[in-house]
Design goal:
alpha/beta, 3-stranded antiparallel beta sheet, Rossmann fold, 35% helix, single chain, 5-stranded parallel beta sheet, 8 strands, 172 residues
């Protein structure tokens, strides 16, 4: 088990839905962008416990969502069971390793890239490109050097810091 997986498993196991169950503003705004661009299928990598992927599925999008944390996926599955039948599938996996054989009209990536160093982030962006349909839409948010946490922790790469063992913050 990687340090990142261990960190997130421990955090979700002890804290549960750490950001609440409502979709974040970026996910809500992405719904409009996806509709305007005729997006039907959406990939949500790093979905955590599924609050944003569940929101999109509740709006009628077909969603495949995954996360490195098995504990987060357990929370997502449990929440899905209580909400009803939505077009969503949850999987456990690391964005750099998970096997995905389909293409998507859209990808929603919220605050994922800053958890990786530059080389890994470039691989992830390349992977997004491979997984998107030709006219696909990528909605991506990431942390900034203006973030209050910028520079905190042990420097492990240019613009990349580890504030807690297993929790990287790469702010590009």
């Amino acid at each position: 088990m990687s340090l990142q997986q261990e960190y997130w498993n421990e955090r979700f196991a002890s804290e549960g839905a750490i950001w609440g169950m409502d979709a974040c503003k970026a996910a809500i705004c992405s719904e409009k962008v996806f509709r305007e661009n005729n997006v039907y299928s959406i990939l949500v990598p790093g979905c955590a416990y599924g609050r944003n992927s569940l929101y999109l599925a509740s709006k009628g999008f077909n969603v495949l969502a995954f996360d490195i944390s098995e504990e987060a996926i357990k929370i997502a599955q449990k929440e899905l069971e209580t909400k009803g039948d939505y077009p969503i599938k949850y999987r456990h996996g690391n964005i750099l390793e998970v096997n995905i054989e389909q293409h998507f009209d859209g990808i929603l990536s919220i605050n994922l890239l800053h958890l990786f160093n530059r080389e890994e982030a470039e691989k992830i962006l390349s992977r997004f490109h491979e997984l998107l349909n030709v006219d696909g839409v990528l909605v991506l948010t990431s942390m900034s050097t203006n973030d209050a946490d910028y520079g905190k922790g042990t420097k492990i790469d240019d613009y990349t810091f580890e504030s807690k063992k297993g929790r990287r913050k790469s702010l590009k």
